[in-house]
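Lab notebook: predicted structure, single chain.

Context: the supervisor wants predicted structures on file for every construct in the current expression panel, including those that have not yet been purified. This is the next one on the list. No modifications to the sequence; it matches the entry in the shared construct table.
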Amino acid sequence: MFMEDSTEGGPMELEKIRNIVQDCLSKHLYSSAIFFADKLVTMSDGNSSDVYLLAEAFFMSKQYRRVLLILRNERLLTANIDF
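Prediction complete. Output recorded below exactly as produced.
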């Protein structure tokens, strides 16, 4: 396993997982990207960049409701109806 030698959740491990998610997305492996992005959000305590990465993985896999749900739950989506 790729995290055996180091402290769990350290910056290097989080960066490795971010790279894995990006690699999965580039190879159209959306379910794997969602899996790793979900772990990343948990390990980074809801870092907004990681939440957006998870939302991107949901979007790419056409799970649009889940995109809205996660962005609303993390308060990263605001409704501004003023035109």
